[in-house]
Write a structure and sequence with these properties.
The protein has helices spanning 3-8, 11-15, 59-62, 71-81, 95-107, 121-138, 159-163, 202-219, 243-256, 308-315, 332-343, 348-363, 392-400, 423-441; strands spanning 33-38, 41-45, 51-56, 112-118, 146-150, 183-185, 192-194, 197-199, 223-228, 232-233, 239-240, 259-263, 287-290, 302-307, 372-378, 381-386, 404-405, 412-415. It has 442 residues and is of the alpha/beta class. Catalyzes the transfer of the alpha-amino group from S-adenosyl-L-methionine (SAM) to 7-keto-8-aminopelargonic acid (KAPA) to form 7,8-diaminopelargonic acid (DAPA). It is the only aminotransferase known to utilize SAM as an amino donor.
């Protein structure tokens, strides 16, 4: 198009029909233009020219836990740029990658001891799945090629990751001939946070555990690994489930020589009120994936961690190596800012606890709405579940008019605010959610 024509059109007009956005049509609802961001606030402009200053209730899809233009993270990037921005990781190493790996191993539950850096959360899941298959083959169990996952789970949009997402109610049912067939357990019984404990129906948990044991016994010769989002299923419905189910999975996986893989991409680094959600159950997986908040929302980076026992057996396989190697593996800029982001986690417990308490108080009135099915809070996660699909466009605009950016989905209006949000910010977020759903769905 002629330059003059491009200059005469708004950014949103130029965007529509040209750029795909996540799970949106090319000519779908108009996006909002970001004109700036600082602290916990986004500066936005709508297609009609209306400007908004909005608290980011999403932490940019759960990643920007320290807010925008954080001076510590900005400086980490500037310092690394002055040295080098990228080098291949094949045959080379560098300080940011090694330092970050050391930090991750120090933070992760024992006995996780080795790190593989990946481009994104989905890719880290792919690496974990490949690792499990290589592990089983090297251990003399080459028939073990399948995975056991949970209904309601979500692990990413790449092919292997899609295969372990919910096969019926998930977002990937359009690709039945592309995605490998896996095994699935029913979603575990839900849990409710009461006085700092996750409480559930013990009879329902007993029944679930029995069904799980029967499934694994029947398919143990085929299963390479069990993959779950511990405690909180994110994109599958912000669903909180019983820690005892994780303990049972740990016990049975060990019994049958199956790798237990925890996808902590959304739940890691304090989001659920524990540094890692696995701590709710007091256990550790054989393999763990982390991402999202890892870099504080600055750059895409994820990691897969595994135990020394797993790494040793994979190293004894015929190839002798883990068969994966992304071009931008351990990108120095991403590793440098991730290292700085982990350094900012000091004191996260009190911040997340304060956010959770404020959300519980401020979201509670919405439970009385006739169209609200449930209000739930876990750590720095607040969820209002409606009894029908949410009008995403209308609720988003109604919340913006109240000074808050939200991105609802399915029948859920939820928030995962940055950890640096003030108590007043959290109150504003909750009141905007309540006001928006009352305006649109009341």
């Amino acid at each position: 198009m002629p330059k003059s024509r491009a200059a005469a059109r708004s950014l949103v007009e130029r965007d529509r029909g040209l750029v795909w956005h996540p799970y949106a049509a090319l000519n779908g609802p108009a996006p909002y233009e970001v004109t700036g961001a600082s602290g916990v606030r986004l500066h936005l402009r709508a297609e009609d020219g209306t400007r908004f200053e909005a608290i980011d209730g999403m932490s940019s899809w759960w990643s920007a836990i320290h807010g925008y233009r954080n001076p510590v993270l900005d400086e980490a990037l500037r310092k690394q740029i002055d040295q080098f921005s990228h080098v291949m990781f094949g045959g080379l190493t560098h300080e940011p990658a090694v330092r970050l790996a050391e930090q991750l191993v120090n933070l992760a539950p024992e006995p996780l001891a080795h790190v593989f850096f990946a481009d994104s959360g989905s890719v880290s899941v792919e690496v974990a799945l490949k690792l499990a298959v290589q592990y089983q083959a090297s251990a003399g169990r080459p028939r073990r090629q399948q995975f056991l996952a949970l209904r309601g789970g979500y692990h990413g949009d790449t092919v292997g990751a899609m295969s372990v997402c919910d096969p019926i109610d998930g977002m990937h049912s359009a690709f039945p001939n592309l995605i490998p067939a896996q095994l699935f357990l029913q979603r575990p019984p839900k849990a409710t946070l009461i006085d700092g404990r996750l409480v559930t129906d013990d009879v329902a948990v007993d029944s679930w555990v029995e069904a799980m044991e029967e499934t694994i016994l029947r398919h143990s010769a085929e299963i390479a690994g069990i993959i779950v989002e511990p405690i909180l299923q994110g994109a599958g419905g912000m669903y909180v489930y019983a820690p005892r189910c994780l303990k049972a999975l740990r016990r049975v996986a060990t019994q049958h020589g199956i790798l237990l893989i925890f996808d902590e991409i959304a739940t890691g680094f304090g989001r659920t009120g524990k540094l890692f959600a696995t701590e709710w159950a007091g256990i550790a997986p054989d393999v763990m994936c982390v991402g999202k908040a890892l870099t504080g929302g600055y750059l895409t980076l994820a990691a897969m961690l595994c135990t020394a026992e797993v790494a040793t057996i994979v190293g004894q396989s015929a190839p002798g190596v883990l068969l994966h190697g992304p071009t931008f593996m351990a990108n120095p800029l991403a590793c440098a800012v991730a290292s700085a982001s982990l350094g900012l986690l000091n004191g996260w417990e009190s911040r997340v606890s304060r956010i959770g308490a404020a959300l519980a108080t401020a979201l509670a009135p919405a439970a009385s709405y006739s169209f609200v099915r449930e209000v739930r809070v876990l750590g720095a996660v607040g969820v209002i579940e409606l009894d029908s699909p949410v009008d995403v466009v209308a609720v988003t605009r109604a919340a913006l008019e109240r000074g808050v950016w939200l991105r609802p989905f399915r029948n859920l209006v939820y928030t995962m605010p940055p950890y640096v949000s003030s108590s007043q910010d959290i109150t504003n977020i909750a009141e905007a959610i309540g006001g928006a759903i009352a305006q649109v769905h009341g």
